[in-house]
Amino acid sequence: MLVVHHLSNSRSHRILWLLEELDVPYEIKFYERQAGSHTAPEALKDIHPLGKSPVVTEADRVVAESGAIIDYIVRRHSQGRLVPPQESWLYDEYVQWLHYAEGSAALPLIMKGTVAHLGDTWRPLKRHVDAELQNHLGYIDQSLAGHDYLVGDAFSAADVQLSFIGELAAFRTDRSQFKHLDAWVHRFQQRPAYQAAVHKGGPYALGNS
Ligand SMILES: N[C@@H](CCC(=O)N[C@@H](CS)C(=O)NCC(=O)O)C(=O)O
Q: How many domains, in total, are found in the chain?
């Protein structure tokens, strides 16, 4: 049985959502963020040395990093669902989004949340971070113009992986300026599997991510 080590209010919501979309049986092991620091509890380090979430275990395998976890679940459990055919160009696009979310887009969003409390002392860096936020959110927004979903108009696991970026954007900037991105977030949040994941995983609010 696949076990999702799920930290409250975190990126691991995506993994529950993907498993709900695919109707794959799984168990959730819950971890609460520590009061004050909002960091993960030490118990997560017993599962993987980094102590981050998401992490999944299945039999004797441990898989960390959301992009790798999504790829693992899709390869082993989706029977071709939620992924373009491997020989198509759409598959290459799909892989790009899978890496892009955490490899590039997450950094300015996370940085802005981490250093905001420094006030004026981080002003020189803030200009750069804000410019990068505009750059990345603008890129995603333009990619979604005229499309319901990221890859060739069909919902895919790439939408699940990038969803965290779209959702966190609302806590870091005025997301409504990116109207295609904003509409995409509202669209995927209506999916029954998304809502089932919130129901099973607990409340999902990203203010402290
Ligand atoms: N790039 C990693 C990021 C993992 C990560 O930083 N997860 C956060 C939750 S959103 C976490 O575990 N934070 C708790 C901590 O750092 O103590 C991924 O996509 O899986």
A: 2
How far is ligand 1, taken at its centre, from the CA of residue 11, in Å? 7
Q: Which residues' Cβ are closer than 6 Å to ligand 1?
A: 7, 10-11, 39-40, 52-54, 65-66, 102, 209
The answer to whether the beta carbons of residues 62 and 47 sit under 8 Å apart is: yes
- For residues 73 and 94, state if they share a domain: no
**DSSP conformation letters of 119-170:** GGGGHHHHHHHHHHHHHHHHHHHHHHTT-SSTBTTB--HHHHHHHHHHHHHH
Which residue segment(s) compose the domain that 14 sits in?
2-82+193-201
At 111-167, the pLDDT tens digits run 998 887 777 788 888 889 999 999 999 999 999 999 999 999 899 999 999 999 999
The preferred substitution site among 53, 71, 73 for testing ligand 1, maximizing ligand atoms within 8 Å of CB, is 53
Within a domain: 209: no
The answer to whether residue 94 scores a pLDDT higher than 60 is yes
Query: Looking at residue 122, what is its pLDDT?
Result: 82
Q: Which CATH number characterizes residue 72's domain?
A: 3.40.30.10
Residue 55 domain-assigned (yes or no)? yes
DSSP 103: I
